[in-house]
Amino acid sequence: xxxxxxxxxxxxxxxxxxxxxxxxxxxxxxxxxxxxxxxxxxxxxxxxxxxxxxxxxxxxxxxxxxxxxxxxxxxxxxxxxxxxxxxxxxxxxxxxxxxxxxxxxxxxxxxxxxxxxxxxxxxxxxxxxxxxxxxxxxxxxxxxxxxxxxxxxxxxxxxxxxxxxxxxxxxxxxxxxxxxxxxxxxxxxxxxxxxxxxxxxxxxxxxxxxxxxxxxxxxxxxxxxxxxxxxxxxxxxxxxxxxxxxxxxxxxxxxxxxxxxxxxxxxxxxxxxxxxxxxxxxxxxxxxxxxxxxxxxxxxxxxxxxxxxxxxxxxxxxxxxxxxxxxxxxxxxxxxxxxxxxxxxxxxxxxxxxxxxxxxxxxxxxxxxxxxxxxxxxxxxxxxxxxxxxxxxxx
Length: 395
Known about the structure:
This protein is of the alpha+beta class and 395 residues long.
């Protein structure tokens, strides 16, 4: 009897344990599904959060413009107020204008006076030694590389000088033979140096503010520049033709400065660029040239100049189609924009090689480049100097 009771008791326990196990099984599955759901929700929330964060951050900022770090080329801090005494160094005439860029000087030939173009700006010394020689260091105004050094004062009217090149992608990029691209470059030139800093060599990289030399009075001019008028001749501009070195070899030029001959370097007003940059530290050279009013506009016949291969952003509109080209030209003879000539402009040039379309006399000023002149009938036309300039452009 007792064994029957025990057997019934075990059966009763089994009767309620089995359903309990079944309930537990489904409870565990339900909890697992709930956990999975929570994990999926958490993952979705995390993904959504990441997407929001990424949207808030946005794309990485573009690299700063090369000119953002433009520094003065000497310790002189008055370049924004150039008319103040002691900022610029005039010629022997004492006229302040003679230290500035443009048709600011006067020459004399056969007893006649004529205007002379000054390619840069002459910055006065702030410190001198006991002999009166300037001791101001000369700085690279922006990041770049040393492109050329003339270390022999007697080789040039610039004396000892250095040319730096600074990348400025705003003027476009240039495809290379290996399939890569390099940005267009702007040059800065530092002339009349007393010495070139030890270790400075062609091809080396420089940073804005690096010392590259010492201000001086070196030149091959006669009479020489006196020590009391030691100064830095500073230029900023573009190279007219990247093949000038070939031309130099053809002409058997001595000394041969290659592409960095002064006749191939066309400057802009450095004080004007400096002032505009001070107002807008993000200013690019392309933006500056876009706002620059041309001195004259011309149409030329010939193959597309090498100039626009190296500064492609200055070419406007459709790609060159082999027809005559229109150019906007600065006071100093620098092309600041180009495009295919319009049908009307093609009619104006006819079968000629060049024609002057328009002249902005307030910008042209004293016209001391002399590339164009006004005839007796009042019509503007190319001079022999202007024809040589066009020949160099198309070389």
